[in-house]
Amino acid sequence: MLTYGITLERDTNKSWLATCAELPEVASVGEDQQEALLNAIDAIETAIQGRIADRQPVPFPQRVKRGRHPVTMPAQVTAKVLLHNEMLKQNIRKAELARRLGVHMPQVDRLLNPRHASKLEMIEAALHAVGRKLELRIGPAS
């Protein structure tokens, strides 16, 4: 799972500003810390979506440092980031992935969109098409 460390600071207007060191484009606010952290999840998804659209790698989070607040992205977003980064690593374009999967480009666009609810089977097929497999495990709730 992608768990980013979020820094919370009081803003000049008494709201809370949330930022993420690994994704400098992430900045969100909230009236309290909980709202700022919730808004940070949305901001991270937006940053990921932008990086995928620009064919830029999505950085993996570093260990959450003391004083930062952990924000864990949904499993599906994590799987899509892993697929995207693997495609970049192997220089596989969306058109090539569509060809390997036997689907049309809009399906690949949706598959790589972190805000689109894709079927797990499709994500697995895409990973298989780039020579990878999805492995799941259960850990303690945090």
Output the keywords:
single chain; 142 residues; alpha+beta; Double Stranded RNA Binding Domain; 2 domains; 4-stranded antiparallel sheet; 5 helices; elongated
Estimate the global geometry from the Cα principal axes: elongated
Mean pLDDT: 95
Percent of residues in β-strands: 5-15%
SSE ordering:
EEEHEHHHH
Through-space gap between termini: 12 Å
Per DSSP, the total helix count is 5
- How many structural units, i.e. domains? 2
Question: What is the tally of beta strands?
Answer: 4
Q: Name the CATH architecture of the largest domain.
A: 2-Layer Sandwich
Which topology of the largest domain does CATH recognise?
Answer: Double Stranded RNA Binding Domain
**Poorly predicted sequence stretches spanning 5 or more consecutive residues:** none
The description of the largest β-sheet is: 4 strands, antiparallel
What does this entry look like structurally?
Helix 2 (75-89) packs parallel to helix 5 (120-129) and helix 3 (94-101) packs across helix 4. The radius of gyration is 16 Å and the shape is elongated. With 142 residues, the protein is of the alpha+beta class. It is 44% helix and 15% strand. The protein is built from 5 helices and 4 strands; from the N terminus they run βββαβαααα. The protein folds into 2 domains: 3-72, Double Stranded RNA Binding Domain; 75-129.
